[in-house]
Amino acid sequence: MPRLDKMPGVFFSANPKELKGTGHSLLDNKTQKKRPKTFGMDVKAYLRSMIPHLESGTKSAKSKDILSADEVIQWSQSLEKLLANQTGQDVFGNFLKSEFSEENIEFWLACEDYKKTESELLHYKAEKIYKAFVHSDAAKQINIDFHTRESTAKKIKAPTRTCFDEAQKIIYTLMEKDSYPRFLKSNIYLNLLNDLQANSLK
Question: What is the DSSP code (8-state) at residue 43?
Fold first, then answer.
């Protein structure tokens, strides 16, 4: 069974005791300092939190708050099914962070939330989303064409619940054609699925 500690680009000691009590420290190795700080560890901890019954016998595998292998398999059927699942959103978001493109799912989720916004708050939320993701100087600028960016800027001046639909569709398609296929082949997805399948056989 593939191990989370075999994720490329992430170092996990086979023996935790090696990290202390010896004259050699990983922190002394300059090459280690160049690696991402704790992303790999965070992902490992996160995936374990998705399957707590692997760490503890206190919860039943049939408990509603336990993620099942069937659910995770369904994520591979379409991006729509993946994003329809809260845990799927979280795991996919962690994958996008590893690719430095988390702004895509953050924008998509912000648009989904925006569509449920009460009328009196539309202007406030529209401005907030535009400044965070769409504006040419946005800190988390999404990858959309000039026409869509300009069109969205005009729409938010008299905001409706559909003023981000065009940009959201572009970002969804980008994730569907680009990031999503890589996600299904990633260690983040495959290790989670393998752990859940192995646990279901116990």
Answer: H
CB distance 18 to 160 below 8 Å:
no
Give exposure, 96-125, as e/b (b: 16+ Cβ within 10 Å).
Answer: bbbeebbbbbbbbebbeebeeeeeeebeeb
Whether 92 contacts 105, CB under 8 Å? yes
The DSSP code sequence of 146-194 is HHHHHHHHHHTTS--TTTTHHHHHHHHHHIIIIIHHHHHTSHHHHHHHH
Determine whether 92 is exposed, middle or buried from the number of CB atoms within 10 Å of its CB (0-12, 13-18, 19+): buried
Question: pTM to 2 decimals?
Answer: 0.69
Q: What is the pLDDT of residues 80-113, one digit of tens each?
A: 999 999 999 999 999 999 999 999 999 999 999 9
Integer Cα distance of 120 and 108 in angstroms: 22
pLDDT single digits (tens) 157-196: 999 999 999 999 999 999 999 999 999 999 999 999 999 9
Q: Are 59 and 51 spatial neighbours (Cβ–Cβ below 8 Å)?
A: no
Integer-rounded Cα Rg, in Å, for the chain is 20
Q: How far apart are CA 186 and CA 152, in angstroms?
A: 34
